[in-house]
Amino acid sequence: MTTVISILGGSLYRSIRRLPHAGDGNAVILCVPYRATAEKTGEDQTVSLDHDLRYATKAEWNAGVEQYEAQRRCTSQVSSPSNGVVAEITARSSAAQKIQLFRSLFRGRDDVYAYGFLSKKTGKVGYAPVAWNEWMTLPNGKRVPTPSDQRRCKPLTDQVLLDHFTKRDSQFHNVVGLYPLSKDSKVWFLAIDFDDDGWKEEIIVTKRVCENHGLHPIMERSRSGDGGHLWMFFSEEIEAAQARKMGTALLSEAAQKTHIRFRSYDRMFPNQDLLPSGGFGNLIALPLQRLARDAGNSVFVDEQFNPYADQWAFLDSVQRITAQQVNAIATLASANTGPLGNLAKFDSPIPHAVGQKKETDKQAPTTGNGSLRTGSRTPPSNADVPETITIIERSMLEISKTNLTPLAQNAVRRLAAFANPDFYRAQAMRQPVYNKPRIIYCGEETVDSILLPRGCRESVAALLTDAGCTVTFDDERNQGKRIRVKFIGSLRAPQSEAAKTMLEYDDGILVAPTGFGETVIAADLIAKRKTNTLIIIRSSSLMEQWRDRLEQFLTVKAKLPPLLTPTGRIIRRQHRYSHELCRNTPQGYCRLRTFPDYLG
Question: pLDDT per residue over 10-56, tens digit each?
Fold first, then answer.
């Protein structure tokens, strides 16, 4: 016999019988609280207490049935779609049952956890491990934080989680941060954080990519409300490296359907393949925190970003991912282009000078320089690009997004992205990877355009041309000012060969050992180009060396304007090369800037 379920007053009820109303003859539904456990085990659900009985009008009952069916359809995305099993744990379940369910999903380190705090300086929420001895007193009476190797951490108890769910603390001391990475570098779940503009589209697309692979992740709106977490729970402990490889592959696939920022690869929990030496790995703030829930945040939502009516019933219906599913996706990614997708890679040693030769017309070249391997997991086709496209050359290459599909845009962006060796070096040595991006992206973004470094000129032209697009370039680069300058030195044979090769290209990199004479070659190039020049130096310690070499090997055949201080006074010692005192003035033919100063 089919059991009909209805939601009345926020609780589940099943009907016993229909009774005619004595007044108008309309049916009245006699119902009792529904117990899913009893139905599964075949136990008798006969009512033993009169106060368990409830009467509902036909209209109330039918409205409750519709509400229940709507909620069941929402939860069916993460539960078995055909068994129709109702969650055993609901909002009316005991605190112990809820905590047991929560701990079965959000499993991490039990011997340590972090608590939140509100920074007085920044006003932002931070987290710190909870310890019995968080502070220690020095002999001079000053209290300082206890060193990590002497800290005795508190375990994560049920009471701590209960406070997380129920207490309202404006200082966030009851907000729990969980360390997902176990001591043997395994995890029970994987979470991906989306917090950029457009995070809703990113998380929805990634979720649907997961569903295409038979996975059923769930979405949580973050505590701030300005982002979301995509949670995937495992049926058993999984190697963190394998779980992260799966997550990375899913992100790479989603990036072909929408704009997934590269920093999303750094927003996975855990953020390490291996537990860092002497640390706990990164933490994630647990959901369902009471103060955030009051504002409609830190809750699980559907694809319209509406919170589920019963958060606990929804969690009880979550479908876990098996180790076989994780391995299958990770293996499939490795067999193709790797979990990160195709990134820029140098397959051959860089010669003395690489780049593109000067172009005498507007037509783009159709072949690359052979040293840069580029593309995306699925290369764009004629349907992904317009018939013609004009790329504007300024300080960067400006590529319009108009008529470029997300797949083509992703392929273009990846021409200027490469794996960060520092990240993998630190991870291999079990060092912290905080503030070390997994992917370095050298491009920029506007609403209408993708901006790539000018060194990607040939690669982007080849990519779009191979897709069937006619590419032209519009040169709007700053041509600089012509100067009358002469090189008064002489170059050795290797220096002369390098300078001659560099002059054949508009862009390029000279790679040479220490003492090769890069400053002398630069002086020769300035004299041959006869254009005012900006020289960016790694550190201020090299400033005088460059200035001395330029004064030694260059002579200017023109009267230079006097150098002025920021207040307009003439500097007595006149240099033809502007330095830090006049870096913001247009005087001089060569401007020396340190790299940090240039960025600032």
Answer: 677 888 888 776 665 577 888 888 764 344 434 444 444 444 678 88
Would strands 577-578 and 388-393 be described as parallel, antiparallel, or unpaired?
unpaired
Residue 329 to residue 331: CA distance in whole angstroms: 5
199-257: pLDDT as tens digits: 999 999 999 999 999 999 999 999 988 999 999 999 999 999 999 999 999 999 999 89
pLDDT, mean over the chain: 82
| Number of H-type helices and E-type strands within the chain | 16, 31
Tell me the two tokens of residue 183. 């001591």
Same domain, 41 and 154: no
Return the biggest CA–CA distance within the chain: 114
Are 452 and 396 a contacting pair, CB within 8 Å? yes
Pairing, β 284-285 against β 268-269: unpaired
Q: Are 308 and 302 in contact (CB under 8 A)?
A: yes
User: Per mean pLDDT, which range of 107-121, 486-500, 527-541 is the poorest?
Assistant: 527-541
pLDDT at position 585 is 39
503 and 471 both lie in a single domain: no
Whether 167 shows a pLDDT value over 60: the answer reads yes
Domain boundary among 335, 368, 397: 335
Tokens of 5: 């379920």
Helices (H), 366-466: 406-413, 421-428, 457-466
Show the DSSP H helices in 421-574 as ranges: 421-428, 457-466, 493-503, 518-529, 543-553
Domain hosting residue 38, numbered range: 5-75
Q: Is residue 318 part of a domain?
A: yes
Structural contact between residues 488 and 524, judged by C-beta atoms closer than 8 angstroms? no
DSSP annotation of 124 reads -
| CATH number of the CATH domain containing 506 | 3.40.50.300
| Cβ atoms within 10 Å, residue 508 | 18
Question: Which amino acid is located at 187 in the chain?
Answer: V
Cβ contact 221:308 at 8 Å: no
Domain boundary among 414, 447, 475: 475
- In the sheet with 228-239, reading across from the earlier edge strand, the strands are 268-269, 186-194, 228-239, 218-221, 299-301
* Total domain count, the chain: 4
> Percent of the chain scored above 90 by pLDDT?
45
Domain check: are 268 and 136 in the same one? yes
Are 471 and 497 found together in one domain?
A: no
391 and 521 part of one domain:
no
pTM over 0.85: no
Rg of the chain taking only CA atoms, in angstroms: 32
- Domain annotation covers residue 552: yes
The CA-atom distances, in angstroms, between 97 and each of 93, 109, 162, 315 are: 6, 20, 11, 12
* Residue 498 near residue 564, CB atoms below 8 Å: no
